Amino acid sequence: MSETHQQLIRNYGKQIMQTTHQFSPSEFTRMAKRYKKIFNPYLPVDKKARMVDVGCGDGLFLYYLKSEGYESIEGVDASEDRLEICRQYVTPNVHCENVLSWLEKHQGQLDVVFCHHVIEHFSGDSVYGFVERLAAALKPDGRLIITTPNACTPWAGYNLYHDLTHYRLFSSDSLTQILALYGIKAQIYPEAAVAFDFPSGLRWLAWKVREAWLKLSYRIDIGGTRGDQTTPLIVSPNLMAVGYRSSTSTTV
């Protein structure tokens, strides 16, 4: 990873986010409603479970976890300017560190690790070291939840190139493969439009029609029914992987 890339990550708020986005505190409540629809089925019952958001940024996901009553939440991110927002609006329990170094120091300590739109920022073989550390940081049978842009969508070019620090995309197949290398048996789900208010409900209805057409287009263009594959055909803009670290698994 080049020094320029590392500098962009350290100053992600002002050099990337703030050039194309305008922050508003209203994002916290709006995104919490969306996250509730997507992630609630995969959260632990134990409200005291140690839960860490790797690459937490402004703290949108931590705000959602806090609103759901989880007591032991923390975040880690290399961008101090984004963590300032998180500390102001969500929690002071965040760490400004290189995520690889932080994970290395917390092997086998975490019940749940969340990693939202981070894996695509790792170049070359460095992504393998990142996933290895994510897996190693989990307790036996600990849970890993990852979201990332989807390569198997007409918007793959946008997903890859709209952020200057993106290096790669995954499909449901390749995301399953890289997690399996490090003992994480994962299920892959679409991360798309969800209905949490009237406008989002209309978007969800339109998306279901669009999704059916995209899956038909895939079968026309690529061929086959994928009947012999264990990973699902997912055409949503983003993917979500929910996996567990097996206490008996081995890694590469």
The CATH architecture can be given as 3-Layer(aba) Sandwich
As for the number of domains, it is: 1
What is the string of helix and strand elements?
A: HHHEHEHEHEHEHHEHE
Largest sheet, spatial ordering of strands: 3-2-1-4-5-7-6
Query: Which CATH class applies here?
Result: Alpha Beta
CATH topology: Rossmann fold
* Biggest sheet record: 7 strands, mixed
Global shape: globular
**What is the averaged pLDDT score?**
93
Q: Count of helices?
A: 10
Q: What structural class do the secondary elements suggest? A: alpha/beta
Question: Care to describe what's here?
Answer:
- This protein has 252 residues and is α/β, with parallel strands linked by helices.
- It has one domain: Rossmann fold, CATH 3.40.50.150.
- Helix content is 42%, strand content 19%.
- The chain has ten helices and seven strands.
- A seven-stranded mixed beta sheet has the order 3-2-1-4-5-7-6, sandwiched between helices.
- The model has no long low-confidence stretch (mean pLDDT 93).
